[in-house]
Structures are given as structure tokens and as C-alpha cells.
Amino acid sequence: MDKLILRFVLFLAKIFLKKDVDFEKLKIIAETKLIMDRRRVRVTMKKQTNKEPNNQMLTTLIVYSILGLFIGILVLTLKEIVMTMTIIHSYVLFMMAMTLITDFSSVLLDTTDNQIILPRPVNSKTFFVARLVHILVYLLQFTVALALFPVIFIFIGYGILVGLASIITILLTVLFAVFITYLLYGLILKLSSEEKIKDIISGFQIAMTIIFAVGFQIVPRLINIENLKITMPIHWYTYLLPPMWMANALQAVQQLKVDGPHFIMILMAVALPVFTFWVMIKFLAPSFAKKMAAMGNAGAQEEIVINAAGQQKKGLSEKLAPIVCINKTEQAGFEMAWKMTARDKGFKIQFYPSLAYILVFVFIIVFKRGENFANTWATLGTSKSFLWCVYLPMFTISAAVSLIAFNENFAASWVYISRPLQQPGSLISGALKMLLVKFFAPIILILFAFSYYVWGYKIIDDFMLGIFNNILVFLIISHVGKSYLPFSMQPNVNQQSGKFVRVFIQMAIIGSLVGLHYLALKVWWLVAVLIPFSAAGCYFLFRTVQNYSWQKISS
User: Fold this and answer.
1) CA-CA distance, 170 to 164, in Å (whole number)?
2) Is the pLDDT of residue 257 over 60?
């Protein structure tokens, strides 16, 4: 599928770009990037297979298609075309922006190919367009999955002409989402120093995730359905909203009648995405490519703190490792993972935005059913909502289980097989303990303090059981999947895509745990009885991971 989409994107590039872009080199670079994305290159202890790892991508596309099915049903339920098309195009714009921010941030900021391409006679515009084509190929796969069912329903509900026009408007919406993302990243790259670029982008991604995710939960709760009008007339602010451009343009196509406002909407819907694409190539390309090259050449060097006696100071990880780890190998895994998660920009960019979802669920709890905030807060202490606070941390740290396997400098993992390790599982268990100590512990303490303030001492045993249950599920997630040594795998688009899918799975697990714990509350002594069983399960799984042999480690 990606080969067919690549031909389509290159065809469009030839139409719009005819100057300063070497299409032969562009095609070679783009094809090479896609080939490399299909391959998992790593230090291996077992025989390689030639099977391409497309299952993760396929699963993600299926989930996106299911989401598109639910959105497409709106076409049959809502009769007003402007509202329907606004919802559909807002959905596409939101999903594309979030996909770029969460799933493809590592690809947008990928500098691993700089050392190969930059010494070659490839100009900055060709290099930038090749990177853009690489992104568009993957995003168009997601676009097909997201928009397939909505477009089918549009054909059924509004006819062939509107259906064909909707395909064009959806593609223009995707192009606009790419421009917005590149523009924001380009401004950050332009205004910041090379040393701070990725830190700023990490903060920007966290902020964007909070804005989108929290807003997605709050805005529907602020809408009074009774006063919601089904008609959506054109106001001054309508001209500022891209989904409204597309919706009104499709309304003009349906009615085959174009007045002044609709003509402006059609012009904006078609001309602005194309114009912004031209601006992106013409003006953003040189500076973006130069900054990316500089960023790739800048080392992530950190100073070592030396005390007065000339000895290296012990960091927090060195002090905690002997306390929580049972052998030297596990301590090494703990300390290495602690320092890597603090220094590795790729990990921080992908993991830290997931912390925003805790804030999302706080809003879900407080603003549930659209109730008044004061009334909700007054009755909060009599509810069982503290169970969500108990299990929210697992939602956050479980996302890091897969992330700690990836690193751009994965080739350095040869050091693992150079050491006489009989049980490499201790390295994995050390990394898992690091995640629990560094991320899980602070979050659960904050939530416990909040819950104790609201519900009092009666929730202490629930938190004890919840902590062990969180750890138990965390270990189960790491145990049932493939086991990789920390930071030993090359970042791969196919493998790292689909974070939304994992979000839904994690939500299902959290919901099940909350439900089971809620049932246990009906028997006053059951929670206390379950604590030692849950703790024993944690101990057993930790020992299982520690005893992993080389045969258990995936390659």
C-alpha cells in the first residue's frame, strides 16, 4: 500500500514543484526511507527472519477504520450537511495533528540519515521534500483508514458529486494539518538554540497534548444540548476555521449554488492548503533542513559533576539502585535506564505527553455528567471515584514498557552480548524497577495525598491493594509481550505507530480493574485479604523476569 501511495505523492510533487527539487534523488531517498522502515535492524543473538513487521501498522489502521465507522454514521443521523462535514473534517484534522505529535514526532525530528545524505550533492529543498514525502506516505495510509467509511456514507447520503468533492477536501485537510505541525516546529527550530531545540519541542508536545486531550473532554461538557441549534450559519469566526471552509464548500457543491460567502469558503478551502504547501517548500525548507542538520551534529554531551576531592558524585540512581535491586546486573540495568530516560530526547518526546492523560481523567472525574463543579466537589467524598486515582498511574507507566526498548544509538547494545551474562533478564527487571521508582512512585504519592485529603484514612488499604495491582498488571504487560533488552532496538515507524491503539487497550484494562476493585469493596474484609495475594504475584513475576535466559530475549 505504501508503494502505491508513494507514487501518488510523487506525482503530486511533480505537479506543484518544478524548481530546486531533484526528483530522481527525491524518489531514491523516499523509497530508501520506506524500505528501512520495514526492517528492524538491531544487535541480534538469534537468526534473523525476512518477515516484515507490518502487523502493528495493520492493527492501527483497523482501529482507525473502526473510529471512522462511528464518525461516518453521523452522515446518516445528522441531516444538516454543514454540521456533518464540519464534524468529519474536524475529526480528520484533530486525528492527523495528534498522530503527527504522538506517533511521528521521532520521524519529524529524525536526524539519523544526516550523516549519509548531507555529504552528498543533495540540496536542502530536496532533502526537506523527501522527509515530507516520507511523512505524507504514512499519513495518507491513516487518512484512508480514518476517512474510508465517512466517504462511503457521504456517497450514500449526498451523492456522487459531494462524495468526490469530500475526497478532495479531506486530502486538503490532511495537507493543512502537516503544514501547521511543520510551521510550529519550524518556528521553534528558528527561534531556539540548537542545545534546547528538542527540550522545547518536548514541552510543546506535552502542552499540545494537554490542550487537545483536556479540551476534548471539557468542551462537550460545556455544551447545552437543549440549546444546540442544528443550523450553522456563517459568522465572522467561520472564516478562521478550516473545517468550516471544507463544510461550506461541500454545501455549495450539494446545492450547486455559489453566493459570495460560499465562494470565499471554496477559495479558502482549495487555495490556502495549496498555498501553505508552497510556502512550506519555498521558505521553510532551507532553514528547517539546516537546523535539522545542525541538530543532528550537536552531541548530547552532559557535564560530569566532580566534587572537591576529585571523585564523581553519586547521583540519585546510584543511591537507589542498591536498595531496590538484588544483584549487580540488575543495578546496572536500573542505573543505565534511569540515566538514558533523563538524557534520551526520543524517549522524553514520546513518553512525557502521556502524562497529560492523568489530567484528562481528573477532568473526567470532576466534570462527569456535566454536573456543576461545586456540587461535584461537595459530593466527591461520598463516591468511589478514588478508585480511578488508584489505577491511573498504571495507564501512564505502561506506555513506557515498549519505549525503553528503542534508541537511535541501538548499535551500542553490542555491549550486552560482550559480557558473560547468564541471566540477561536482570537488565530488564532493573529497567522495569526504574520505571516504577522514577515515574510510578511520584505519581501514586501525589494521587494518594489528594485522595487522603478528600476521602480520609479509609482509602489506605485500597491504595495498598491498588499499588500491587498496578505493579502486577505492569509486569504482566511486560511479560506477555516480546522481551527486548533496554534501548537495544532501532526506532521503527511501523513498530512505534499505533499509540492510540495501546491507549484503548490500556483504558479497557483500567476499567476492568476499577470494576473488580469496586466489587471487592462490597465485602469489607476482601480488600485486606487480597493484598498479600497481589504482592505475591508481583514477587513471582519479578523473579520470572529476572530469570530470563538469552532464549527468551527477542531479536
Assistant:
1) 10
2) yes
* 3-class SS of residue 42: strand
Residue with cell 456543576: 372
Is pLDDT larger for residue 375 or for residue 445? 445
Question: Which candidate, 545, 393, 391, places its Cα nearest to that of 465?
Answer: 391
User: 81 phi and psi, to 5 degrees?
Assistant: -65, -35
Question: Which residue stretches of 238-385 are H helix?
Answer: 242-255, 260-279, 285-297, 316-324, 328-343, 345-351, 356-366, 373-379
CA-CA distance, 14 to 4, in Å (whole number)?
16
Phi, psi of 483 (to 5 degrees): -105, 120
What's the distance, CA 330 to chain centroid?
29
Please, what sign has the CA dihedral across residues 439, 444, 445, 447?
positive
Question: What is the domain partition of the chain in residue ranges?
Answer: 2-14+26-38+57-296, 316-546
pLDDT at 256: 85
pLDDT digits (tens, 9 = 90+) for 216-242: 555 455 444 444 445 566 777 777 888
What contacts 462, CB < 8 A, 6 or more positions away? 386, 387, 390, 517, 521, 527
User: Which residue in this structure is represented by grid cell 538469552?
Assistant: 550
Residue-wise pLDDT tens digits, 18-52 = 667 788 888 888 888 887 766 644 333 333 444 44
Q: Are 123 and 20 in contact (CB under 8 A)?
A: yes
- Amino acid (1-letter code) at residue 544: T
Q: What is the pTM of this model?
A: 0.58
Three-state DSSP state, 49: coil
Q: What are the two backbone dihedrals, phi and then psi, of residue 327, each rounded to the nearest 5 degrees?
A: -150, 170
